[in-house]
Amino acid sequence: MTTVITIYGLLALCLGASLAKSRKKTKQAFLIAGKAFLKTAPSLLTVLGIVGLTLGILTPETISRLIGSEAGFTATIIAAVIGAITLIPSLVAFPLAGSLLRSGATVMTISAFITTLVMVGVVTAPMEMKALGKRFTLLRNGLGFVAALVIAGIMGVLL
Amino acid sequence: MMDMIKKFKFPIIIAMVFIALAIWLPDTARRSSIVTMDYLKEMILIVPPVFVLMGLMEIWIPKDRIQKWLGSGSGIKGAAIAFALGTLPTGPLYVAFPMAGSLLRKGARISNIAIFLGSWAALKIPQLMVEIKFFGIAFASLRFLLTLAALSLMGMLMEFLLRLRPDRAWWENVDAAQQPSNEAEV
To answer: Do B51 and A95 touch (CB under 8 A)?
Structure first.
């Protein structure tokens, strides 16, 4: 909800300023926005579908079973992969991961899950490629995955 | 017609997967549709204003300004600006992609865009509050510091690699949407 308020607030502010300065340029901005939106629409639909499919298959129970019961390094890798694939809002994912931590999952596994969850977005990759290019997307997500494993390793040792 | 099919190739494939699931695994199909509908509602609300904001940014913020703030000469200050922009409370990461793309085309450094996207994804202030609540301050602050360090390294590495072998296909695909129309001064 705060997101929606922030974005629309910002939009009202910018749109007001833009209209005050030039109607013509504001119209141009809308044209650019419309074209960019049409270009992104197919990848937007793709992302929507994939998000639904991954979360329909990987329910919180399945995730708990996969991460919670496995031990050691395998669990960490599985957690990192699940985190990379799924797109779960942090308000849903953090309580789940927190309860897994309390019920016996290791710090390394949980931090791998959290870090890839926020940093790596396999399902949003089609949109990212449209906006930023294939190479940028592959590098950002690939390096992000490696970084997440390193971060998880360090956190597992320190905490 | 062929063109449309090609454009919507992936959505069509996904729709077929949904249909297959509905036949063989109706429970999974139901759960998936509910999630998709939830995200659809969110996107309908968030995506249009984001694109309009991007359009306004394209029109009003001149190239040289972006270059100065986030470009190759912006140094530590540019990285700090990218980080600060990213941590502002503004919603899911896919919202940031069109913004980041437009910044990149206007001359922002690759490393700064990587930092911007990374902190948007992983270091958001509201998200951090939730993290502290469920994992404690030690976990959250350690992850914050390590992620920040990782993002800086990643940014530099990405910039190095993408300069070595630029993404020509992306740079050349400057169609109408990204055409700099700043020259048309009123």
So the answer is: no
Residue B182 has pLDDT above 80, yes or no: no
The pLDDT score that the predictor gives to residue B23 is 94
Nearest CA in chain A to B90: A3
Give domain status of residue A126, yes or no. Answer: yes
Per CB-CB distance under 8 Å, the chain A contacts of B9 are 42
Q: How far is CA B182 from CA B31, B61, B64, B106, B176, in A?
A: 47, 9, 11, 11, 13
pTM > 0.90: yes or no: no
Find the CB nearest B135 among A42, A47, A101.
Answer: A101
Both tokens of B20, joined, read: 């297959």
Q: How far apart are CA B138 and CA B132, in angstroms?
A: 8
- For chain B, domain boundaries: 1-47, 61-178
Q: Is residue A150 part of a domain?
A: yes
pLDDT in tens, B106-130: 999 999 999 999 999 999 888 898 8
Q: Is A32 a member of any domain?
A: no
Q: How many domains, in total, are found in chain A?
A: 1
Cβ A29–B161 below 8 Å, yes or no?
no
